[in-house]
Prior knowledge:
Elements: E1 5-8, E2 11-14, H1 15-34, H2 37-54, E3 57-58, H3 61-82, H4 84-89, H5 98-118, H6 122-132, H7 137-144, H8 148-178
Parallel strand pairs: 1-3
Antiparallel strand pairs: 1-2
Helix pairs in contact: 1-2, 1-3, 2-3, 3-5, 5-8, 6-7, 6-8, 7-8
Amino acid sequence: MVSNFIYISDKKYAFKLLFNDFYAGQVMFxxxxxxxxxxxxxxxxxxxxxxxxxKKSFSNEISFKAYLYLSTRNKxxxxxxxxxxxxxxxxxxDLMSTDEMDQIIKTEAFTLLYKAIEKLPPQTKKVILQSxxxxxxxxxxxxxxxxxxxxxxxxxxxxxxxxxIYGDAFVLLLYPFLFN
Length: 180
């Protein structure tokens, strides 16, 4: 039986909602790899169908997006390998590199991070934004006119909240930017 839901962080999401949210971006991503919009649409539909059939669950939104991008990339590579004419037109250098893939996933991670930061209490949000600019704890305290201990406490609170929302792996990815 095919599920109508995808589970992310133990929360149930309607498959149609996720499809509507991510389909267009995945088509653009696939088109960048293979150069043909119609084929890109077919590939992305197949990726979503495979996710739907597999009843996958994901630990957080980043793992879902990473899986989606990797699946789309792999389907595009399979498509290119099967199409000998296209294979001749595209060199291996034309395929999206791992660095480009990593950059896309990092961009998605930072987008989610900023969404999460917007939900933090105002003072905690200010501390995190200042920390992300590279300011030390002392500099953040001076800028916000609060004690160093307040800055440390608010950073710990933010860490707990982000970890609860996105899991340890996500926070560890962003740790160097948040907790200097």
